[in-house]
Write the structure tokens for this entry.
Amino acid sequence: MTATMNPLDQQLARLLAEPGASVVVVAPHPDDETIASGGLLQRAQAAGAAVSVLLLTDGDNNPWPQRWLERRLRIGADARAAWGRRRRAEAIDALACLGLPASCLHAMGWPDLGLTARIADQLAASLVALRAALLPLRPTLIVAPILEDRHPDHSAARVLTELVLAHWPAPRPALWGFAVHGSATQAQAFMLSADERARKGRALEAHASQLALAGGRWRRRVAHGESYVPAAAPVGTGMRLELPWLPAMPQFGACALLVVCGEQAWQLPWREGAVSGPLHLQLHPQPALGFAQTPRAPVFVKLYSRRPGLWIFDHWGWRQGGQEPALTLSSDSASLA
């Protein structure tokens, strides 16, 4: 039977055969655990592995489905909190459809659409909390969003996961990535049986609040199965860092460069000569980020603005750089607008 498996199936079979196998899915919102990994969770449970879902937010900042279903325009704090409780309950019902007990859900209760701000303002405390939640689960495989996922909570979840794993006691768990919003390059297909697919479909229906306006989209997504990107070795030196785009003139003063290394975060205004702690930013002749000394850990960089917008998806994105005293900030986009 192993001979008919694709490489990802074989890798998972080996991971699940290890003594003390434990799979943890890091879900930024309720429904991500089902959409991204409902099949994998079933497979791990059937193999006898410990299975956990670490839910970072309750998905409470989800106004348009709430307005539609509750026939309200204004959403106050109490209504938003009630929506979050509804979505967490939906996640528990979905896990039951997958054959998993409510006890496998571990909720952090962090603010929906607020994970990037946590990195900017509360990085050390967030890493302490995330490490405290993950360590008792003793994961041998962690499944989390990829860095390129277009939802800002998803990409931020990946940054937080990577930062925690950078100081993980040996042996370090394997890390797989998934994309819910957007696509993953180099993703490998994970084959689901007909029964696994059917149970995953029933689990999706438990997330009724998310199907009211986007049911067709998510049902099609579930029908297509799952795919993952196994993480490569931790980043070392010699990497060129490219931003998705560089700010044009109208954004000057409205955005900053958010830089994360180890357990520290800095924000540099996007202007010539900006300085924050050991960092300095130059824009001419080519944007570059300089460090007072060579970083001791991989660096994550993101163009960041606190200015609210109607579009939640993130075309700015995070980039990961190596441990170099200077990183070139070129753009892989022909448009700087």
Q: What stands out?
A: Residues 167 and 262 are 9 Å apart (CA to CA). Confidence is low (pLDDT under 50) at residues 235-239, 332-337. The chain is about 35% helix and 25% strand. The first helix runs from residue 7 to 17.
